[in-house]
Amino acid sequence: MQVDESALDCLFREARTPSRWTEEPVTDDTLRALYDLVKTGPTSGNCCPARFVFLTTQDAKERLRPALSAGNTEKAMMAPVVVIVASDPLFFDYFSRLNPEPDLRSWFASDVGLSEETAFRNGTLQGGYLILAARALGLDALPMSGFDGAVVEDIFLAGDGWRANFLICLGHGEHDGTPRAARLPFDEACRLL
């Protein structure tokens, strides 16, 4: 099934990354609906390693402040929600429910490098799904990599052992009509072999 042109506009062509936010809130129900879409996206072996920490209160966002780069601080503090996109390096402990293939758990449990690489790669993929799901639900998304991952892990993730990957600010953006920044054309970014 192919989506119509308006869906493509919503997800890609007309979507923009905001730098300012309206005061319209993002409800917990919307965040639950968002995750219900994200969790259906494919990952290798259905490993589903992404973990999402939704910072929905000003207090939670203030706890994030020391980890943010100067250029990202105001954007994050003003966003209705900041999502810590993390990955669980022990994702394979859930295979009994997610992928019952015999001995799959032991394959990852015995190779730390493989499990960390798989968690990072597939967790990043799921973070991308979150951006698209947010757009599909009428939210704007601003991904960020300017932060100190060790600080985020110490403050928010230490109890679970999850690893911080990137941040996404969510909300309803103020759009000023600034044109999209340039993108590389097909011939520069792709090869047909």
From TrEMBL:
Keywords: Flavoprotein, FMN, NADP, Oxidoreductase. Residues 16-172 form the Nitroreductase domain. Signal peptide: none annotated. Its EC number is 1.1.1.298. GO terms for molecular function: 3-hydroxypropionate dehydrogenase (NADP+) activity. Gene3D superfamilies: NADH Oxidase (3.40.109.10). CDD domains: RutE-like (cd02148). This is Malonic semialdehyde reductase. The lineage of its organism: Bacteria, Pseudomonadati, Pseudomonadota, Alphaproteobacteria, Acetobacterales.
